[in-house]
Specification:
Number of strands: 10
Radius of gyration: 21 Å
Strand order of the largest sheet: 3-2-1-4-5
Distance between the termini: 37 Å
Shape: globular
Structural class: alpha/beta
Number of helices: 13
Strand content: 15-25%
Low-confidence stretches: 1-7
Order of helices and strands: HEEEHEHEHEEEHHHHEHHHEHH
């Protein structure tokens, strides 16, 4: 690290550019979060990245910023902001292994994809299995968003709904079109929107269990990550109902008997990929003796050029 960076107290920014949202965090030298923001980009990914970087610059004008970026929409933006690109699954895995080393399984729901990560073996000799649905929005946040709009349930109200005591109706979550068709039928039948929402969440959970797990057992502890899990607690309720049924079917006894500790949404769950990008990137830099100066934020001029011209170039 250069003398100039030491004098300016180097900070570390992680940016996760997803299919529907951008998440950004700033970590200090001890890897503590000192700034964070989660925003929908409305298909304007680079514009929102620019806005967040300018906010961070304004919040920490006396600091240098070492940038790390991840997520499905990040590759094309990385060069324009002088950030180091970190593959998303690597970022997620490293964040979980660092922050929650006792976790055995992860389920992450994104805007248009879903991931399951399973660790097998002993602590010092573990292998990682990763399964991802990135070909269809069925069973993801996009399907939930579309149905919430269809039934007229605002996100702030959906966040207050819990699954206990709700009647579950059939909704096909394998495809957003099929789900919408079922929801229209329920609306015509006079089913209340809260019951439709919980039924949809149940369908999303079951869809991901059937498609992503691929015969494996999601052993405890199970971490629930991503925006839908963070902001819609009904999903957590349903995972806590469905997973024990799976455990019973496989005749597997969970180590953790407290269901709220066995299956849970951690603090800052929506920021794990952004956090992991910083943690993984810093560790890689240390191992390869690369100085943080290589990823220093140098302003948004190149990003402005990318927004106005670069993404249109052939």
């Amino acid at each position: 690290m250069s003398e100039n960076s030491v004098q300016k107290n180097l900070l570390y920014a992680g940016i996760d550019v997803g299919s529907t949202t951008v998440k950004a965090v700033v970590l200090d030298d001890d890897n503590s979060i000192i700034w964070k923001k989660y925003s929908r980009h409305g298909t304007k990914q680079p514009e929102l990245v620019r806005e967040l970087l300018l906010e961070i610059r304004e919040s920490f004008p006396e600091n240098d910023l070492s940038l790390f970026i991840t997520g499905s929409g990040s590759r094309s933006i990385a060069k324009a902001i002088n950030a180091r690109y970190i593959q998303e699954v690597n970022a997620l895995c490293f964040a979980v292994e660092t922050l929650h080393p006792d976790v055995s399984s992860v389920i992450e729901l994104g805007g248009q994809d879903a991931k399951v990560i399973i660790w097998k073996g002993e602590k010092d000799d573990r292998t990682t299995l990763t399964f991802m649905n990135d070909k269809c929005a069925g069973g993801t946040g996009a399907t939930i968003d579309k149905i919430l709009d269809k039934i007229g349930l605002y996100h702030v109200d959906a966040a207050k709904v819990r699954s206990k005591g709700m009647t579950i109706h059939h909704i096909a979550a394998k495809c957003g079109v099929f789900a919408e068709t079922d929801v229209v039928g329920l609306l015509k039948a006079g089913v209340d929107k809260e019951s439709i929402f919980v039924s949809l969440c149940t369908a999303v959970v079951k869809q991901n269990l059937e498609v992503l797990v691929r015969g494996n057992v999601l052993k405890d502890k199970v971490l629930l990550l991503g925006g839908p899990h963070t902001y819609l607690p009904a999903l957590t309720d349903i995972w806590r109902e469905q997973l024990p049924e799976t455990w019973a079917t496989h005749r597997w006894e969970p180590v953790c008997k407290d269901i709220e500790q066995a299956i849970f949404v951690p603090e800052d769950s929506q920021f794990f990929a952004a956090i992991g990008a910083v943690l993984f990137g810093r560790r890689s830099d240390e191992l390869s003796a690369v100085e943080g100066d290589d990823h220093i934020f140098k302003g948004v001029t190149e990003l402005e050029n990318y927004i106005s011209k670069g993404r249109l170039a052939k």
